[in-house]
Every structure is written in C-alpha cells, then in structure tokens.
Write a structure and sequence with these properties.
three-stranded antiparallel β-sheet, binds cytidine-5'-monophosphate, 227 residues, five-stranded parallel β-sheet, globular, Cytidylate_kinase_dom, nucleotide-binding, Cytidylate kinase, alpha/beta
C-alpha cells in the first residue's frame, strides 16, 4: 500500500495513545509517541539536576541527551543515552515538569527534528506511520496525509486518566486528576512555541461517547479512503 502519514493531536486523556497504537497495529504501520520524547528529555533534565523552570539551562542542554524511539505500536520503547525510560517517564515527577521543558524553543527544535526524520524514514518505506502529539498537524508534519484532532469533555478525560493511574477512584482523586489535566492543557495551549492547536485541515473527533474500538474503526476508515 501507499505509505500514509497520519497526525493525531489533542489534549491529554482524549485517547490519543490508545487510538494511535490501535490504528497502527491494525494497518501494520509504524507508531511514534511524541509526548514520550518530551517526557524522556524532561526525565534527563531532572536527572542532571537541571531546574525545569530555568529556561536558559534547559535550552543550553537541549542537544545533549541521545533519545531513541522504537516505532512498533505493539511494543513502543524509548531510551535516553541507552537507558530504557519507558516506566519512569510516566511518573508524577516527569508529568509535573514536562510542560515547562517542552515550552522551551530549543527543546522543540531538537525534538521536532527527531520526529521529522523518523516520519520521513517511515514514509519512505512500508505502509507509513501514525504520529501522535500536540502540534503534529500544525507544525511537525503540516503535509500529513490525514490529520485528526481528538477531543473529549474534561470529566471524561479525567475519569480515563485516573483509571490508567490505578489506585482508589474517589471524588478527591478524580478532582485532582482533572485539575492536573486542565493545568497541563492550559500550559500546552498557551505557550508561544508551537502550542497545542487543531490544524485547519484536521478532522475533529469527540471521543466522549465512543468506545476505543469505534474511534479506531473511524480512523482506519479515513486512512483507507486515502489509499
Ligand atoms: O502526550 P503526553 O501526555 O505524554 O505528553 C506530555 C507532554 O509533552 C504534554 O503535556 C506537552 O507538554 C508535551 N508535548 C508537546 N508536544 C507534543 C507532544 C507532547 O509539547 N507533540
């Protein structure tokens, strides 16, 4: 089949990762989690003792760590200087710092370069790639063959994210998760460098009333129309 480059953007908790992996696995495509790359460089900054709020220090170190993303949707991996960081990048420490680090232009330039070279490699061979993030359709891959922007009400997103994190699902936990999501969305949408935004030519899909399977099904159908 013709290689297809698909950009899937949207705020946290809309089902971007599950949808992107599901679609890529179904169609034998590669998969790139760009949030994991920002989390990985944030993890490295914290390990170095660099304060995520110290923009100059973050910018000065932007080129230092080597970040390698695996693109198998069934077993995505990410390493920093050879260390597998798949687990620690999901922790509260990295989650709390990632929006500050990813707002730094030098960080975005570095990570965007990695993303474009991975997408070019995948588009040159095989059935293509699904790239998920916040600015893929607007900035990283403006010529993507298909752009999807996922949305869902904050309550729905908080319940999903809270379920993923495990532990007790009481009202206080849910409220805290919702507050954290809203804080991160606000930071990601209001930053100057390549904010979270829907591309003009993106298809918007509200996932609130759909199952994961239904969302995957719709995206697969849109890709098949473009082949
Ligand atoms: O998708 P995930 O929650 O793992 O993304 C973590 C953070 O990485 C986001 O909150 C955002 O600050 C940043 N990010 C970004 N641009 C992307 C993907 C993620 O700025 N393309």
């Amino acid at each position: 089949p013709t290689p297809v480059v698909v950009a899937i953007d949207g705020p946290s908790g809309t089902g971007k990762s599950s949808t992107s992996k599901g679609v890529a696995a179904r169609l034998g495509m590669a998969y790139l989690d760009t949030g994991a790359q920002y989390r990985a460089i944030t993890w490295w900054m914290l390990r170095q003792g660099i304060d995520p709020a110290d923009t100059a220090a973050v910018a000065a170190a932007a080129e230092k760590p080597e970040i390698v993303s695996g693109t198998d949707p069934l077993a995505p991996t990410i390493t920093v200087d050879g260390t597998d960081v798949s687990a620690p990048i999901r922790g509260a420490e990295v989650t709390g710092a990632v929006s500050a680090v990813s707002a730094v232009p030098e960080i975005r330039a570095r990570i965007t370069g990695l993303q474009r070279s991975i997408a070019e490699g995948a588009a040159a061979s095989g059935p293509g790639i699904v790239v998920e993030g916040r600015d893929i359709g607007t900035t990283v891959l403006p010529d993507a063959d298909l752009k999807i922007f996922l949305t869902a009400a904050p309550e729905v997103r908080a319940a999903r994210r809270s379920g993923e994190l495990g532990g007790p699902q009481d009202a206080a936990r849910l409220a805290a998760t919702r507050a954290d999501l809203v804080r991160r969305d606000t930071a990601d949408s209001s930053r100057t460098a390549s904010p979270l935004a829907r591309a003009g030519d993106a298809v918007e899909l509200d996932t609130g009333d759909l199952t994961l399977e239904q969302v995957v099904e719709r995206v697969v159908a849109m890709i098949e129309e473009r082949r």
